[in-house]
């Protein structure tokens, strides 16, 4: 049965009685498909967040003073340019954590940005389909945001990219129009390509709308140094940290966005996943019937360097995509905050292969060249002791 409940009524019920998360039956399929449901779901989640944070008493991080992360297209031109200036600055800033004796083993690490890429390469098999996938990436992008501030003078917050707004034709998104206020253009179009079979996911991928170098906008002349390691139809490097200077490539592909990253995909993910196992598996494409999920789908929608499993942080867009992933997690958590704030499930190896111990909130999680180890528990709450931010 489908019926409609007002957002205000749902939010107040939820806040007062700590009711269970709203059910997908509360919206019609049309409301799910046209974005009405998602708008209301995020409103309920933020009402709950306001209530929850408000009960914490005299702590320094309050809803009103938390940093606000916004969708890139909703930022001013000046703020967008400030962000991309800082992102390119980080690609020219020397490494900060790598010691001289380590550097010889990492010939491709030339910049602070490369330290993020190398860390992700190093840890790929321990941060995807693990208990800490969501938490690890949350902290990874938070440090990126804080490096933009401390190393490159950025005064804003990390933007996110709501790919669902662009699912019909990501190549036509205002984010990628290639002007100086954009996130840079598509890759140059390479014609005459045929379908590619992706073995891991068992699907046939049609060619995208780009494929070559990003040729206009803020990232047109950046030079990447690491990877790719596992891209189809590319010259992959032979070793993880090889120096491989080249342009940034993209290949926007609506095949993925239309199948895995629509507004109904994200709404159904959040409302139909009652248990964390379902939520994190489905998000990453480890649930049946959806080999990508919104996480994998977002990477493949961009294509090129952003779709390389290991070295995807090469593309600054990685951090905006993972901002959206983090926003989805906080939304899911806040729909039933008392049950979901501190819940984790899984081990520290990809799909538990090879088998490893169940992770706990007391575990210290490593961040390679990004920063020192952080206790898992500290990564669970955007208003907790490590952070103070929210999405809007
Ligand atoms: Cu990742």
Tell me briefly what this model is.
The chain is mostly helical and 392 residues long. It has 13 helices and eight strands.
What would you note in describing this structure?
This protein is mostly helical. It contains 13 helices and 8 strands. Strands 1-8 form a two-stranded parallel sheet. Helix 7 (133-152) crosses helix 12 (317-335) and helix 11 (293-302) runs antiparallel to helix 12 (317-335). The longest helix is centred in the middle third of the chain and has 20 residues, at 133-152. The radius of gyration is 20 Å and the shape is globular. The model is unreliable at 1-17 (pLDDT under 50). Copper (II) ion binds next to loops. Copper (II) ion (CU) binds next to loops.
Question: Keywords for this structure?
Answer:
392 residues; mainly alpha; di-copper center containing domain from catechol oxidase; two-stranded antiparallel sheet; 13 helices; globular; disordered N terminus; binds copper (II) ion; Di-copper centre-containing protein
Taken together, the total number of domains comes to: 1
Give the % helix. 25-40%
Structural class from helices and strands? Answer: mainly alpha
Gyration radius from CA atoms, angstroms: 20 Å
CATH homologous group name: Di-copper center containing domain from catechol oxidase
Strand content: 5-15%
- Small-molecule binders: copper (II) ion
Order of helices and strands: HHHEHHHHEEEEHHHHHHEEE
Could you name the CATH class?
Mainly Alpha
Biggest sheet strand line-up: 1-8
């Amino acid at each position: 049965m489908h019926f409609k409940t007002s957002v205000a009524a749902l939010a107040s019920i939820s806040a007062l009685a700590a009711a269970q998360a709203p059910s997908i039956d509360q919206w019609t399929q049309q409301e799910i498909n046209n974005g009405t449901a998602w708008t209301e779901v995020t409103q309920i989640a933020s009402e709950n967040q306001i209530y929850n944070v408000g009960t914490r008493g005299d702590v320094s991080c309050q809803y009103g003073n938390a940093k606000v992360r916004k969708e890139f297209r909703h930022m001013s031109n000046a703020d967008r340019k400030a962000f991309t200036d800082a992102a390119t600055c980080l690609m020219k800033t020397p490494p900060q954590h790598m010691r001289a004796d380590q550097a010889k083993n990492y010939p491709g690490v030339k910049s602070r940005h490369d330290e993020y890429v190398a860390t992700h390469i190093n840890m790929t098999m321990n941060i995807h389909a693990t208990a800490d996938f969501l938490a690890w990436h949350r902290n990874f992008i938070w440090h990126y945001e804080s490096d933009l501030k401390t190393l490159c003078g950025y005064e804003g917050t990390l933007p996110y990219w709501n790919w669902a707004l662009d699912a019909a034709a990501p190549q036509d998104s205002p984010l990628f129009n290639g002007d100086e206020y954009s996130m840079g253009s598509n890759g140059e179009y390479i014609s005459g390509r045929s379908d590619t079979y992706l073995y891991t996911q068992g699907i046939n991928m049609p060619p995208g709308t780009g494929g070559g170098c990003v040729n206009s906008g803020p990232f047109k002349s950046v030079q990447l140094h690491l990877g790719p390691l596992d891209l189809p139809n590319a010259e992959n490097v032979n070793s993880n940290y090889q120096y491989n200077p080249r342009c940034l490539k993209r290949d926007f592909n609506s095949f993925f966005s239309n199948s895995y990253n629509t507004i109904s995909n994200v709404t159904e993910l959040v409302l139909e996943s009652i248990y964390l196992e379902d939520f994190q598996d489905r998000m990453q494409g480890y649930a049946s019937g959806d080999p990508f999920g919104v996480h994998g789908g977002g990477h493949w929608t961009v294509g090129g360097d952003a779709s390389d499993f290991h070295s995807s942080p090469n593309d600054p867009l990685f951090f905006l995509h993972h901002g959206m992933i983090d926003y989805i997690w906080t939304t899911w958590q806040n729909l039933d905050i008392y049950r979901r704030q501190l819940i984790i499930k899984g081990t520290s190896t990809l799909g538990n292969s090879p088998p490893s111990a169940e992770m706990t909130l007391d575990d210290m999680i490593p961040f390679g060249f990004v920063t020192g180890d952080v206790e898992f528990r500290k990564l669970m709450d955007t208003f907790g002791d490590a952070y103070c931010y929210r999405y809007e």
